[in-house]
Design brief:
With 205 residues, the chain is an all-alpha fold. 76% of the residues lie in helices and 0% in strands. The longest helix is centred in the middle third of the chain and has 56 residues. The chain is rod-shaped, with a radius of gyration of 35 Å.
Length: 205
């Protein structure tokens, strides 16, 4: 039987949660956009220059026209490029946050599970990536929790039976039938514990 857990809403106020990963991807996206823009810009410049040279035959007029046109274009680019860089950086942070944020949370959840805290809820925010991984971790966590719950119940039963057995054994004239019955109970619990752990594979230390 699966236990209901209280769901607590959480908000990530930090957008750079995994600096090494996020900054790397931001750099890649920024470099890609800038290189693409540079390639397109060079292509446009060469095309325009070719058109200017063909449409303006006079050398002095051509030089004056080209100088004025490209001077305005350069001024426009000096304003556009920083704005473009800022937009790309902001979008990159938001996009990588959708991946880095869930990765950071899932790492913390796995750390908690590794320390024995199986009560942690594996929930991500709406719109986050790695949702399928979170669902699988939650499923594994619930299965382990269910198994541990059963083991704890059997250990509680084992403790009770051992106490009854010890109490009966301390009597001057212990009841053999009762001792036999309790021993049978202990054997049954032991067998169930062995069955539960028979399919479990553990790391070899």
């Amino acid at each position: 039987m699966q236990e209901k857990r209280s769901e607590k809403k959480f908000h990530r106020r930090k957008y750079i949660v995994l600096p090494s990963s996020q900054l790397k991807y931001i750099g890649i996206m920024l470099a890609t956009v800038l290189l693409t823009s540079l390639a397109v810009g060079v292509g446009v410049y060469l095309t325009l220059m070719d058109a200017f040279y063909k449409s303006v035959p006079n050398v002095s007029g051509r030089a004056l026209f080209v100088e004025g046109a490209f001077s305005e274009a350069n001024q426009f680019l000096l304003i556009l490029i920083p704005v473009l860089v800022m937009i790309v950086v902001i979008i990159s942070i938001l996009v990588t946050h959708k991946i880095a944020g869930p990765e950071y949370r899932l790492k913390n959840i796995l750390d908690a599970i590794g320390k024995g805290d199986f009560a942690v809820s594996v929930k991500l925010r709406k719109g986050d990536e790695l949702q399928s991984l979170a669902v699988k971790i939650e499923e594994v966590n619930r299965n382990i929790s269910y198994m541990i719950k059963n083991q704890k119940q059997m250990l509680d039963r084992l403790d009770i039976k051992l106490r009854l057995l010890a109490k009966e054994a301390k009597k001057v004239k212990p009841d053999r039938s009762k001792l036999s019955f309790l021993a049978g109970n202990l054997d049954d619990i032991s067998m169930r514990l062995k069955e539960d752990f028979s399919s479990v594979k553990i790391h070899k230390f």
